[in-house]
Design brief:
about 120 residues; alpha+beta; Alpha-Beta Plaits; three-stranded antiparallel β-sheet; 4 helices; 3 strands
């Protein structure tokens, strides 16, 4: 009889520990992405949000800062930079190819940073 009273409590504890162990640890990062307008914002954020493991992605049109929150077990910061560069936008780590930059809408053509020598 005592076992029957203890069983629901034990089940609750087991369920609590299993559910809390599955919560991913998210990493927050921010970095510069070159762009100009709301169309840039839409494409940059859509690209980043399509990557597995991304929880949030916000790009500020005024200062060019990208803020991301992601699960580092599913994706790497380097992969996020590469994905943005593939659609035509330069980041702090990767420069978009001239071809992908030239495929951007005319209003999205930003002044590209010069390479430091």
């Amino acid at each position: 009889m005592k076992l029957l009273k203890f069983l629901p409590f034990l089940s609750f504890l087991l369920l609590f520990f299993v559910s809390s162990a599955q919560k991913p640890k998210y990493q927050k990062e921010d970095f510069k992405v070159w762009g100009k307008c709301e169309m840039c914002k839409t494409l940059i954020e859509k690209t980043v949000k399509s990557i597995e493991g991304i929880k949030t992605a916000r790009w500020n049109v005024v200062n060019g800062k990208m803020k991301v929150k992601f699960n580092p077990e599913l994706t790497k910061l380097d992969d996020i930079h590469k994905a943005i560069a593939l659609v035509g936008y330069d980041t702090e780590l990767y420069k978009a190819t001239d071809e992908s930059y030239n495929n951007l809408h005319f209003c999205c053509k930003y002044e590209r940073p010069t390479e430091k020598k």
